[in-house]
Amino acid sequence: MRWSLRSSDGVDLEVVEFGGTGRPVVLLHGLTGRATTWWAVARELVGHGRVVGLDARGHGRSGRPEPGDPDAWSPGRMAADVVELLERLGPSALVGHSMGGLAALLAASRRPDLVTAVVVEDMAVDLTALPSDAAGEYASAGQPFASLAAVREAFPGVGDYMTECVEERDDGYHLLVDLADATAIATHWTHTSHWDALDAIRAPTLLIEAEDSIVPPGQAEEMARRISGCEHVRIAGTGHLVHDGPHPRYLEVVHALLDRT
């Protein structure tokens, strides 16, 4: 089942219901992703509560903001979308990958009363050392793709995941997200840091770091020190998309957090 939520700045946001009952568990995808990329993980989490996923603005079936607002793609605005969803759902656990992980952290810092647990998968609060075109790999992938097999070939290691993030048009397959929007989002990451937000987080928090991570060396450890009651786990043999599969160690540590919160 799907339903929509209109954000306070007028963007229609798509919400996917994966099943389960009780306290919500909200899944937040990464850049270029969509809520339905979480299906395999969602099936494993329905025993913890009502599992829902949010298509971030400009992603999946969610709308795009009107042009002209430079903050419409900022991490703070993405977090505001999450907070507005939580105001509808009530206190919830947040499970975020990459972009979704940053939104989860910022939402938890703004509304600790609405967040019962936080899982952040391979994301930092300070990516200012990254090149400003952090979304350039998608532009270089060569759209349109002639087939889903071509999508898999263009994104080795995460090809099956990326086939969920495209749509078929007359000339082939295109990413659902507009590359200009993805670039605007990533550019915000390279120009802002969010260390201060960590001090306001009150929910039990799990930071999951990939072995081949985008997180600058040592930053995950420092983030864990700054967040009260935070656990940091590095999962061997994984890339940025740690949960893909889903990875058994990822499920183990996420289950453990949700079981105790």
From TrEMBL:
At the top level, the lineage of the source is: Bacteria
Instruction: Please list where the region (Disordered) is annotated.
Output: 56-75
Q: Which InterPro entries does this UniProt record tie to the protein? A: AB_hydrolase_1, AB_hydrolase_fold, Carboxylesterase_BioH
Q: Which GO terms describe its molecular function?
A: catalytic activity
Q: Which residues form the AB hydrolase-1 domain?
A: 24-243
Name of the protein: Pimeloyl-ACP methyl ester carboxylesterase
Taxonomic source organism: Pseudonocardia endophytica
